[in-house]
What does this fold into?
Amino acid sequence: MGKVIAIANQKGGVGKTTTAMNLAASLAVLEYKTLVIDADPQANTTSGLGQDPKEVDTSIYECMVDGIDIETIIHKTDMEYLDLVPSHIDLVGAEVEMINLDNREEKMKSVISVVKEKYDFIIIDCSPSLGLITINALTAANSIIIPVQCEYFALEGLGKLLNTIKIIQTRLNPDLEIEGILLTMYDVRLRLSNQVVDEVRMHFKDLVFKTIIPRNVRLSESPSFGLPVIAFDADGKGAVAYLNLAHEIAAKNGMEKVN
Ligand code: ADP
Ligand code: MG
It folds into this structure.
């Protein structure tokens, strides 16, 4: 049974998409069958993995609203173990159209349920909002990864997110766990970066992943090649960090492979 992990934080620019595509690619390199679902109308994960969002006419949104089978819209990527459910701009309208549906928070969960058996991991990239699609992702997920940027106001909005998680645990998904808080864009030379690491670790202790994602220019360049960083700078700091994260998550879930 595949583990469903949502990457969420309503704050924009914290590294959700970078994490979704590169964690998924790293899991795939380790030969875990992995599906990334792009649940953000900005479709950055879609283009980052080499799929032109303009050519996408069916996304997770049509599956949720029109009952289309997710299996018919899964795209293969260049990586053997990595598949993608792309997004496109119309996902913006989904929240409005879903308002009157029964069980509107549970649509994504039932859409995903038919492919859960086929994957080891299903990674959902969320948009920077706590709207209905993100609520759907958190209701469908077994756990959430919360990227936190090592920058000013790192903890801003985190209280609201944790509160939303509690509400979802109470009303919609009692089994939702926090997989971990992921520190991103860490710059070893900056005192501020180190202060944020200390502060987040002090507050959240074991909830914080041991792996820290460094600021790394290759990570910001890779989407323009339509590739995860591991596909063109495999030995670089960014690729190594996301590979470490994949190992950490596999180990945490008792899925580490012995070579
Ligand atoms: P979000 O999905 O949370 O909005 P993104 O993953 O799109 O955030 O990241 C925001 C911007 O920061 C993007 O331009 C991305 O390329 C860049 N970025 C993200 N993580 C890193 C990193 N570790 N090092 C350098 N740039 C990064
Ligand atoms: Mg994003």
